[in-house]
Design brief:
Layout: H1 4-12, E1 16-20, H2 26-41, E2 46-49, E3 66-67, E4 78-84, E5 102-109, E6 120-123, H3 129-139, H4 146-159, H5 170-181, H6 186-194, H7 199-210, E7 213-215, E8 220-225, H8 227-232, H9 243-248, E9 255-263, E10 266-273, H10 279-285, E11 289-290, E12 294-299, H11 303-315
Parallel strand pairs: 1-2, 1-4, 2-3, 4-5, 5-6, 8-9
Antiparallel strand pairs: 7-8, 9-10, 10-12, 11-12
The structure holds guanosine-5'-monophosphate (5GP) and manganese (II) ion.
Length: 318
Amino acid sequence: MMSNVLKNIISSQGTCLIIPHQSPDGDCLGSSYTLSHFFERHQIKHHIIMDDVIPSNYTFLKKNNMLKSSDIKDDEKYDYAIILDTSSLDRIGASKSVLDKCASMIVIDHHKTNSFFGDTNIVEMVSSVGELLFNLYTEIDYVIDQEDAIGLYTSIVTDTGEFRYSNTTNKTLQVAAKLFETGFDFESCSREIFSNQPLEKVVLKSSSLSNIELYGNKQVALMIVSQQMLKQHNCDMFHSDGIVEAGRDISGIEVSVLLKEIDSNTVKVSMRSKSFLDVAEISLVFNGGGHNRAAGCTINAPLKEAKQLIIKEIESRL
Ligand code: 5GP
Ligand code: MN
């Protein structure tokens, strides 16, 4: 039983580093939040490794046990690294440097492209790592409280696109109902997450969408966020969150692509599909990964070249 992993940590009073992926999203932040709370309730010594800025709509999930990987000293030792919502090791970025201070690596993830890179891998195709943690908690009869519900609900509501995506199952909704039974303030959570966008982010989105390009017989929407646009609108790259979904929501579009210019020779690609195209497969061609309907990769090329490469790959599959 996979929940033995949590039981073993508690019974051995193991020390842990919780490691979410870089460019943190609602699922990895929400699941880090609840797992940290679970450890607090069991007096387990732990930290969350957070090297990136937390987007402002998720700052309510900040914990004062968060450290940067550079804060972990060379002579520190931990029993477990617990890597959340991460399908391959390159997705944790700078946090990789703390791994050699941990005796064992536990991966808790729900991506079908997961490469099983941990010593222990708990990988299940459920909506979110939040739903997976809920299942692990239930197996060991852990009583979920309102703090847990805040983290778990954030994971689930964000990764399912507010229960709209195909990863939402009957079980997902039952989990959400169980969370509601704790009486946690879900309205406040929703406000924080969805009605709390900085103005500059909304302006960046509007600028990117107003320059939308269509390909593949108008089934492909392509948007760009360049370094020049970030400067112009006083934004960071994490403000590009939500743009690729807006492209996908246009009528007739099957695939939406957002090209994020990291530097003159690096482009981060985000893809979303609507009903049939497997974007995880396309991402794998460029050594990325993800889910059928939401995936991404990095292409080491200038914007123009990256655009041609990705569009060609998509068009060949339509
Ligand atoms: P996003 O477009 O929001 O960055 O990512 C969408 C999904 O694709 C997420 O589930 C994420 O884990 C996955 N993904 C995005 N970029 C990469 C990547 O470079 N490598 C891998 N393996 N997965 C990625
Ligand atoms: Mn996730």
